[in-house]
Amino acid sequence: MSCNTCSTGKDGQPKGCKNNGTCGTDSCNKLTVFDWLANMSLPNGQDPFNWVEVRFKNGRKHYYKNTENLTLSIGDIVATQAQFGHDVGMVTLTGELVRIQMKRKKVSETDEEILKIYRKASQKDIDIWSDYRDKEEPMKVKARQFAIDIKLQMKISDIEFQGDGSKATFYYTAEDRVDFRELIKLYAREFKTRIEMKQVGFRQEASRLGGIGSCGRELCCSTWLTDFRSVSTSAARYQQLSLNPQKLAGQCGKLKCCLNYELDTYLDALKDFPKSDVKLYTEKGTAVCQKTDIFKGHLWFAYEGEWSNWHVITKDQVNEILELNKKKEKITSLEEYATELIQDTKNEFENVVGQDSLTRFDSKSPSKRNKNKRKNKKRRKPQNSKNNAK
After folding, report:
1. pLDDT tens-place string over residues 17-32
2. How far is the C-alpha of 108 from the C-alpha of 63, rounded, in Å?
3. One-character DSSP codes across 151-183
4. Which domain holds residue 148?
5. What is the pTM of this model?
6. Does residue 211 share a domain with residue 196?
7. How many CB atoms lie within 10 A of CB 322?
């Protein structure tokens, strides 16, 4: 969903609002909550909730109290209270949904350090804010060079100016703890403003910068995912994925968050399966599990010493054999169970649009194709000899 100014331009190319995430309608911003109570009126005598949600650069959100009883709606640019001076942000949510969001994020309404909204931003406030926003990108290039010159193992990922320009927050990522006292002195001398350094994780950096994932969609962390749960390689093992770090890692360099999405379903399905290290004892020999198909409910076993010959049986049959082994009974062989599985590998396709089948060339064997080629060559040779005689 996008705002009206994000329509298509000439030659089918996207026009874009060119506001860098600060468009007034606020419908193309990331992590925005849909106000489904906007068209509903409050009961008689009930005052609206006097807290609002304000968004700043890259999805950073805070909650402010509307002590001045200003008439605010989504998309309004406001001047808010800061530790020193004031900041400028955009209202993203009002009304009762703010109460729910504050409860979900554990923000107390009775906190002593309550931040307030001063006023709706004037044109002068917006001009100052826009000027400092334009300075952030060239400052980031210089800041990275300073960190490289003094050989600090860190990366400046982003810079955010306060609305009045009195403070600049430098977001950085690092593997270990970094002593940046000398770096702050260089920044203060060069940029002539108050400096604040804030370390973020690699997943938080990816969520701030955004991007396109390997699935072709926007990153989950920059669109809707707000809580970052730990992801381990065991999640890939349970889902029988290849432990390839290039495929399992996201743009942040860590394991992809989507590995946890279907993990619970796989764990529930694996409860009915025997363990992978289980052994089946038969009169022919001992069989070891080689492969598991969770979707079909099949397991592949091979006898010790005959590792190239696999026998596929169902999980119910495996559990049946295990029960017999517990009673110190053995079956004759796995073949008597494996023959009961009839795999239907024939695919039937319906031609609903009148087109030819995609496998129409596969019916002929290579030997028949070669015979047809030889016949065609023999037919062409007499024609060529007649032409030469003429």
Report:
1. 554 444 544 445 566 7
2. 10
3. T-S-EEEEEEE-TTSSEEEEEEE-SS----HHH
4. 127-200
5. 0.65
6. no
7. 14
